[in-house]
Write a structure and sequence with these properties.
heterotrimer; A alpha+beta (about 350); B mainly alpha (about 210); C mainly alpha (about 550); A: about 350 residues; alpha+beta; five-stranded mixed beta sheet; about 30% helix; elongated; B: about 210 residues; mainly alpha; 6 helices; binds heme-A; binds dinuclear copper ion; binds copper (II) ion
Chain lengths: ~350, ~210, ~550
């Protein structure tokens, strides 16, 4: 007989385990309740911690929610006769439901502290260091050792190329407001704070492209501060870096005149305009230029460390001239081709809210 | 009816409609709580001050000789500090006076306190005109004027309250049994004084 | 003459507009608070519907970034500072003097002043919409984004408006504390006070200690913006993180200001509708105080990703705060246990509170695990957390309170059938709106974006949330209709319609000026229960 009882209890506990597994498994079917698969080593640690927190949370949730609903339905009474026993409290119970949650949070704290230490650990000699500058409303990635800089434009978010399988260190800097470098598949973000440099390491194991986005609200263009992280095999990465080095400046789009081509000689005295930019604003909101003749535009970017350019668009919004992006303080001279009479707008591609009108007559 | 109310302990200014409890009176308790909130307000400003000060390599920041305010502390600012401390004393003398039902003593003490308070304000205004730096001159100027400015505003509020008290005292509205307002204002004045002593120590001495 | 006839109570509320505008009666002021806050709830809700409408589909359809940023900033600001905090203060105003057997608040004129600062502050905040744009930096108004360089006049109005509203809060807190300490009826010892009074007490201490710090921050930012100060902008020598520290030093305690009185409300409702005493009264008082105290040591859990705070300490404290909250949760359940539960409207909303606040508490605890917060911070997960605690918690508590005390305030019941329609729509709507936000957050959707890529895979869930948002809005219609109809022709309630426990049910509905003609003897935290049943089982 004892064997039958123990078999039964074994069966019962097996059943319980199965039920628990089913419940948890069922939950994991709702893939949405989990973050995306981690791309980085560090992200995988966070994912492991998340799974633990999630499992404990589900158990607490089902238990407590179950108690509430059970109490409500079990003790519901439509008649109003008599009084239930007037129980005022129970010290043992108070101790239990103080101590058990205390133990649970102690466990949770312990594991999250451990995970924190590995996630925040920094390699002494990362394979690559990249300076990340966030500004309203773009990203700039520079590879100081290679002298390569990538700046995003509204229609072409920047790509942060990194070698897979190697530790990369990011130094996060801002010149204006606070941004945050966030890649969902890293399960990680870190604020980009003016006045200080935040640093973190990561290692991506598999080549791939991961979507990223600014996560700290930073004004009008916050929703457009996207980027992507491209992890390549070290060989591909080296090739990419070398190619970038060969063509340092961002290329001007086809159809628009190239940046600093010498002014066409011969046609007498070319008109000359000047425009400045400071504090993320153009120095003047309207310019006037002669029609049907090329002219030069001296652009003075006075914003320390902040890139600007001048992009001239016609009434339909197509670009008729797009100047190179220059990082201030710097002065450049654009040669603008001959324009038909009319009204144009000029904007900074990096800061679409910097704009003015250009009247050509 | 009259016999009964005479046998009760003297009510100390609770709201007539409420069930006033013995002990500290409502206005005085209210003032103490309000002062608690004022302490937290200044704590916020002080926290900001210590934050920028801790971040600066040297303090006062180099490059502006006007920032060396601790050099000429004693003639003017020291005197002002003394004035405030004395005014706290005279204010308290007024409270003690009215507790003895000495109405003339209260009026005298309030008048002196008020005069000292005004002297402090005038002195501080003069000091501002001599400093040679402004609110927007670096973190030093910003924190200096914010702290002393808000303290000054509180002194101003205090002198206005003292003025009202003085007016009501000359009208004979206070007595040994009825002077909660005087006590509350006096507490406020002490608070303003303590804040100044902290400010003085931190801005000029530390 | 112990049995003077009470003045006919109904005349109290049939007074003219002038009387309402100049009243210093705590009950009228309480009702003014509730009405004013409800109005701002509708306005802020309307702004939220704007947010939801824009987010329903990817792309910019109705509101561009410039407007969208104002919408969510004003939505958050108004919901917090002009709806939930004053709404709960309004209940405190109406109920606390009644519950402790006092005739009024300690300082009735200051009470009126506190109230009238609110509509004024609200007017200032909203006037931004007419003067070239309201504040648009989020309700957290982080610097440097909120500096004059980046943010317009609306932000100055925001600063001034909030300073005014904060001052109103501080004066209110002083008033509550003096009232509670000094005006209790004979026999009403501290440990016989209803739990709601305890929560208002702790809340007032939080306001008294935290709100002035916020005021100082607002003023410093104002100086930065208008007088060339250098507090918060690193470009001129200030410190951007300083703003966050000062802001959250206030705003974390403030989230308990937004929940504790709501917990107090349901701690009144659950016992009455279970016909049992609150389980573990003393444990409840200690838990409330512990939450208040711990609340001052967790502020940096909003700053885990700044790289500027000592993470383990704030993580530990944040985890710990789940413990006293858990104590409350279990005591509430134990109060239900073995009771005679009546599912009348106040009870429905109280149970709604329990079931939904549980979710909000647990999904908040996720963020206490710092590395997990690295993933969740500033995503829609946090938006889900906010709304499960604030909507699922505080708002359900507020409606429980409205249905519970409406008969006391007006002498008439609200209609139970309409109440059930309201409850079901609101409950379903809120889960439809805010549950999908967990999934959006995990999928990486950041907060405070007007637009997202159709390729991101967030479109369906956002549409669902939008449908939910409009369902919540729809739930307000039966409620408003219910109030309007019941005011005229609701069922007469009598003095004590619910068989209440606390002193407000010992006077007429509505109560006369100065509240009580005669008080029952107070020998436990349930004087009316004792009066009805004798000291049956009340082992106090
Ligand atoms: C009513 C308001 C309210 C309340 C009550 C809470 C309660 C809690 N909050 Fe929440 N919080 C907000 C309002 C509130 N919060 C708001 C508005 C924000 C966003 C601000 C912004 O950025 O705009 C925020 C943001 C916020 C963050 C920052 C997230 C981020 O930006 O990354 C964190 C991080 O730790 C947090 C944690 C918590 C915790 C641990 C609790 C705890 O108090 C919850 C405790 C309750 C329970 C846990 C449930 C019951 C307990 C049990 C059944 C016991 C057993 C449980 C365990 C052992 C876990 N909150
Ligand atoms: C008490 C607090 C509270 C409440 C009740 C709500 C209620 C709602 N919130 Fe709130 N929300 C916050 C506090 C609150 N919110 C805070 C603090 C933030 C952060 C802000 C920030 O990031 O800075 C936020 C942010 C926030 C966002 C994120 C925005 C973003 O990051 O971009 C969203 C998105 O959907 C949202 C939606 C909603 C919805 C749909 C409701 C619904 O419940 C609203 C229901 C609708 C109504 C109640 C309207 C009813 C109106 C009518 C029926 C019209 C009738 C009119 C008349 C009769 C005149 N909220
Ligand atoms: Cu940059 Cu948000
Ligand atoms: Cu918090």
């Amino acid at each position: 007989m004892p064997s039958r009882r123990s078999r039964l209890s074994r069966a019962r506990s097996l059943g319980l385990v199965a039920l628990a597994a089913l419940l948890l498994g069922g939950c994991s079917q709702i893939a949405g309740l989990y973050p995306p698969a981690a791309a980085t080593d560090q992200g995988q640690r966070i994912r492991d911690l998340y799974d633990l927190v999630f499992a404990i949370a589900v158990v607490i949730f089902l238990f407590v929610e179950g108690l509430i609903l059970w109490a409500v339905f079990r003790y519901r009474r439509r008649d109003r006769v008599g009084l239930p026993p007037q129980v005022h409290g129970n010290n043992t119970l108070e101790v239990v439901w103080t101590a058990v949650p205390m133990a649970i949070v102690a466990v949770l704290f312990f594991f999250s502290w451990q995970t924190l230490n590995t996630v925040d650990a920094r390699a002494a000699d990362p394979a690559l260091k990249v300076d990340v500058v966030g500004f309203q409303w773009q990203w700039q990635f520079s590879y100081p050792d290679a002298g390569v800089t990538v700046i995003g434009l509204p229609d072409s978010p920047p790509e942060l190329h990194v070698p897979a399988g190697q530790t990369v260190e990011l130094d996060l800097k801002s010149q204006d407001v606070i941004h945050a470098f966030y890649v969902p598949s890293f399960l990680f973000k870190r604020d980009v704070v003016p006045g200080k440099v935040n640093v973190f390491d990561f290692r991506i194991d598999q080549p791939g492209t991961y979507r990223g986005q600014c996560a700290e609200f930073c004004g009008l263009g916050h929703d457009r501060m996207t980027f992507s992280v491209v992890a390549q095999t070290p060989a591909d990465f080296a090739a990419w870096l070398a190619a970038k080095k060969a063509t340092p400046a961002p290329s001007a789009p086809a159809g628009a005149a190239a940046g600093s081509a010498p002014p066409s000689a011969g046609s007498g005295q070319a008109a000359s305009l000047s425009l400045s930019a400071s504090n993320i604003a153009f120095g003047s909101a309207s310019l006037t230029a002669p029609a049907n003749t090329a002219f030069s535009l001296t652009f003075d970017n006075q914003d320390q460390g902040i890139p600007h350019n001048v992009d001239i668009k016609d009434a339909s919004g197509t670009s008729v001239f797009r100047g190179d992006v220059v990082t201030g303080p710097a002065r450049t001279s654009y040669s603008v081709p001959a324009l038909k009479p009319g009204s144009y707008t000029f904007v900074c591609d990096v800061h679409p809210n910097m704009s003015g009108t250009l009247t050509v007559q | 009816m009259t016999a009964q109310s005479r046998s009760l302990p003297a009510p100390r200014g609770g709201h007539p409609a409420g069930h006033a409890r013995p002990g500290i009176s409502n206005p005085v308790l209210g003032m103490i709580l309000f002062i608690t909130s004022e302490v937290m307000f200044f704590a916020g400003l002080f926290a900001a001050y210590f934050n920028v000060r801790a971040a600066a390599p040297v303090w006062p920041p180099a490059g502006n000789e006007h920032f060396q305010i601790h050099h000429d502390v004693w003639p003017l600012v020291g005197a002002l500090t003394l004035i405030l401390i004395v005014s706290s004393l005279t204010c308290q003398l007024g409270v003690w006076a009215i507790q003895r039902d000495d109405r003339r003593g209260l009026v005298r003490a309030l008048a002196v306190t008020l005069a000292l308070g005004i002297t402090f304000l005038v002195g501080q205004a003069y000091d501002y005109s001599q400093l040679g730096f402004g609110l927007s001159d670096g973190t030093f100027g910003t924190t200096f004027y914010t702290l002393t400015g808000f303290h000054g505003a509180h002194v101003l509020a205090g002198t206005i309250m003292l003025g009202v008290m003085l007016f009501r005292a000359t009208a004979g509205q206070f007595s040994a049994r009825h002077h909660d307002a005087v006590e509350a204002v006096s507490l406020y004045w002490h608070f303003v004084d303590v804040v100044w002593v902290c400010l003085f120590s931190i801005l000029y001495l530390l | 003459m112990a049995t003077t006839v009470l003045r006919p109570a109904t005349t109290t509320y049939r007074t003219g507009l002038y009387e309402w505008l100049t009243t210093t009666d705590h009950k009228k002021i309480g009702i003014l608070y509730v009405l004013n806050s409800f109005l701002f709830f509708l306005l802020a809700g309307l702004l939220a519907l704007g947010v939801r409408t824009e987010l329903a589909r990817p792309g910019i359809q109705f509101f561009d970034e410039k407007l969208y940023n104002q919408l969510f900033t004003m939505h958050g600001t108004v919901m917090i500072f002009l709806f939930i905090i004053p709404m709960l203060a309004g209940f405190g105003n109406y109920v606390v003097p009644l519950m402790i057997g006092a005739a009024d608040m300690a300082f009735p004129r200051i009470n009126a002043l506190s109230f009238w600062m609110l509509p004024l502050g609200g007017l200032l905040l909203f006037s931004g919409f007419l003067t070239g744009g309201a504040a648009a930096e989020g309700w957290t108004s982080y610097s440097p984004l909120a500096q004059a360089k980046y943010a317009g006049m609306g932000t100055d109005l925001w600063l001034v408006g909030l300073t005014l509203i904060g001052t109103s809060s501080i004066l209110g807190a002083v008033n509550f504390l003096v009232t509670i300490f000094k005006l209790r009826a004979p026999g009403m010892t501290l440990f016989r006070m209803p739990i709601l009074v305890w929560t208002v007490l702790v809340t007032s201490v939080l306001v008294l200690m935290a709100t002035p710090v916020f005021t100082s921050a607002l003023i410093m930012l104002f100086i930065d913006r208008n007088y060339g100060g250098h507090f918060f902008d690193p470009a001129t020598g200030g410190n951007a993180i300083l703003w966050q520290n000062v802001f959250w030093f206030y705003s974390h305690p403030a989230v308990y200001v937004m929940i504790l009185p709501a917990m107090g409300i349901i701690s009144e409702v659950l016992p009455v509708f279970s016909r049992k005493p609150l389980f573990g009264y003393r444990a409840f008082v200690f838990a409330t105080s512990a939450i208040g105290a711990l609340g001052f040591s967790v502020w940096a859990h909003h700053m885990f990703t700044t790289g500027s705070v000592f993470l383990p300490f704030f993580s530990l404290m944040t985890f710990l705060i789940a413990v006293p909250t858990g104590v409350k949760m279990f005591n509430w359940i134990a109060t239900l246990w073995g009771g005679h539960i009546r599912l009348a409207s106040p009870m429905l909303f109280a149970i709604g509170f329990l079931t939904m606040f549980l979710i909000g508490g647990i999904n908040g605890a996720f963020s206490a695990a710092v590395p997990v917060d690295f993933a969740l911070h500033d995503t829609y997960w946090v938006v889900a957390h906010i709304h499960y605690v604030l909507f699922g918690g505080s708002v359900f508590g507020v409606f429980a309170g409205i249905y519970y005390w409406f008969p006391k305030m007006t002498g008439r019941f609200l209609d139970e059938r309409l109440a059930k329609v309201h409850f079901v729509l609101m409950f379903v709507g809120m889960n439809l709106t805010f549950f999908p936000m967990h999934l959006l957050g995990l999928a990486g959707m950041p907060r405070r974006i007007a637009d997202y890529s159709p390729a991101a895979g967030w479109s369906e869930l956002n549409l669902l949330a939008t449908i939910g948002g409009f369902t919540i809005a729809a739930s307000m219609l039966p409620f408003i209709w219910n109030v309007l109809v019941s005011l005229r022709s609701g069922v007469e309630a009598g003095d004590d319609p619910w068989e209440g426990n606390t002193l407000e049910w010992a006077t007429s509905s509505p109560p006369p000026p100065y509240n009580f003609d005669h008080l029952p003897e107070i020998r436990s935290e349930r004087p009316l229960f004792d009066q009805r049943h004798g000291l049956l089982g009340s082992g106090h």
